Amino acid sequence: MSNPSSLVSRRRFLQNVSALSTVTVCGGYFTSQSVAESRSPNERLNIAAVGTANRASADIHGVIKENLVALADVDSNYLGRAGKRFPAARTYRDFRKMLESESEKIDAVVVGTPDHTHAPAAAMALRLGKPVYCEKPLTHTVHEARVLTQLAKEKKVATQLGTQIHAGRNYRRVVELVQSGAIGPVREAHVWCSARYGGVHFTTGTPAPDNLDWDLWLGPAPKRPYSEGLHPKRWRNFWDYGNGAIGDFGCHYMDLTHWALKLKYPTKVSAEGPAVDAVATPAWLVVHYEYPERSDMPPVKLTWYDSGRRPKLLATLKGPNGKPINWSSGQLFVGSKGMIVSDYNRHMLLPADKFAGFKPPKRSIPDSMGHHAEWIHAIKNGGTTTCDFSYSGPLTEAVLLGTVAYRTGQSLDWDGRQFRVTNSQQAQQQLHREYRKGWTL
Fold first, then answer.
1. ∠ CA(117), CA(104), CA(78), 5° rounding?
2. How many CB atoms lie within 10 A of CB 118?
């Protein structure tokens, strides 16, 4: 195998230009505009996919205009269907064998597996010098998120977290409102999600179906007998593979608060929920975060709620029609001059009568070319994306610190720069877990 960080000759058109380039900001991501055109700007990338069904299928569709040349999936049924769809692609059950065997042929990697194998797959691809698109949350543990963030920085390749809502227009308009000062300085924010997990137990005595390589599905997680239903959907209910509702939707909904308020590392994290189960994720969770002052923004307290719980303040608010705002999921920014309530596709300024006739600020964030398209564009033209790992790594860390606070039952003092829980060795030890033999980060 050649030097992992080197570029294969077929890809050199993506990096080599005949003159110096200038870099401009476009909608939050950087694009490189060459003075002279590259040799083949329309040449397609060779993409390898880790996972082929469900969210992974959507990610494959997102890069469908490129060449799908290698596919890996632990489920032979899924792999077979994907193989028929892309007959020129080579198929593998084990992504490690795929990445090792195809290293010289692939240009970039899409990771769409359950959370517990995100980091091993993404880290291997990054160490091979491959750009990576990874589904949310970026990782299963806080430590994994920091490792991928550092690897992406070291390898200087294009990365993107699969928070596709980030590419929508609605989030952009909310960011503009908050950062323009429309509601004044924000010192309080709330994020809530209706998703419910927990209350599920492992089954026993049922053999794994013939189409599923159960040992490969477990990956770095502890070895245990097959449990019916874990694949493909119920794995988020168990700590060994997921992190419940906050793991599923934390990066989606807290993305907007982190983006609009320029948040990175919280300084304090505490959580409340039902009695901790060593195996199953909680039936509900509320997490309290405190973030320090940023250069142009005051300290802010952010609270996460899931499984139907919502901020009490929300029940007191009414929209322009006078009806209560009974949104099942969303974000609430509380400023000194007013509030913004939002979700994936809508937002409103409150109190409604105060903002009647309000003219929004001039748009400063251009529309996205598409979440996957940003990543492809960055690979081909240089620069980065709106959710590269330098942004989404710290976002994932914050989300997952909520589960550490909950499982330890402690209020954490977090030093993000030193990557240390300064007041709890127990919590520090829960930032990661030991991998099963044969698996590495």
1. 40
2. 30
Identify whether the C-beta of residue 291 lies closer than 8 Å to the C-beta of residue 436. Answer: no
CA-CA distance, 344 to 198, in Å (whole number)? 24
Sign (positive/negative) of CA torsion 323, 328, 331, 336?
Answer: positive
Q: What size, in residues, is the chain?
A: 441
- Note the pLDDT tens digit of each residue in 136-188: 999 999 999 999 999 999 999 999 999 999 999 999 999 999 999 999 999 99
Name the residue among 148, 131, 144, 102 with its Cα closest to residue 2.
102
Give yes or no for a contact between 69 and 102, defined as CB atoms under 8 angstroms apart: yes
Which pLDDT does position 158 carry in this prediction?
98
Using the predicted structure, report yes or no on whether residue 407 has a pLDDT greater than 50. yes
Check if the beta carbon of residue 83 is closer than 8 Å to that of residue 91.
yes
Whole-angstrom Cα distance, residue 172 to residue 258? 12
Provide the angle, in degrees to the nearest 10, between the axes of the packed helices 371-381 and 55-62.
50
Beta-carbon-side half-sphere exposure of residue 197 (alpha carbons within 13 Å): 26
CA angle centred on 75, ends 72 and 78, rounded to 5°: 80
Structure tokens at 213: 């390589």
**From CA 384, how far away is CA 378, in angstroms rounded?**
5
Helices (H), 7-127: 55-62, 76-85, 95-101, 118-127
Coil vs helix vs strand at 70:
strand
Q: What per-residue confidence (pLDDT) applies to 2?
A: 36
Catalogue all structural domains in the chain, each as residue range(s) with its CATH number.
9-166+369-388 (3.40.50.720), 169-198+240-365+398-421 (3.30.360.10)
**Half-sphere CA count of 290, side-chain side, radius 13 A:** 10
Q: Where are the beta strands (DSSP E) in 198-262?
A: none
What one-letter code names the amino acid at 58?
Answer: A
Bridge partners for 92 per DSSP: 72
Please say whether the beta carbons of 52 and 60 come within 8 A.
yes
Tell me: cis bond preceding 311? Omega within 30 of 0 counts.
no
Rounded distance, CA 300 to CA 362, Å?
26
What is the Cα–Cα distance from 13 to 399, expressed in whole angstroms? Answer: 38
Is residue 58 classed exposed, middle or buried when 0-12, 13-18 and 19+ CB atoms within 10 A define those classes? middle
Residue 60 to residue 49: CA distance in whole angstroms = 7
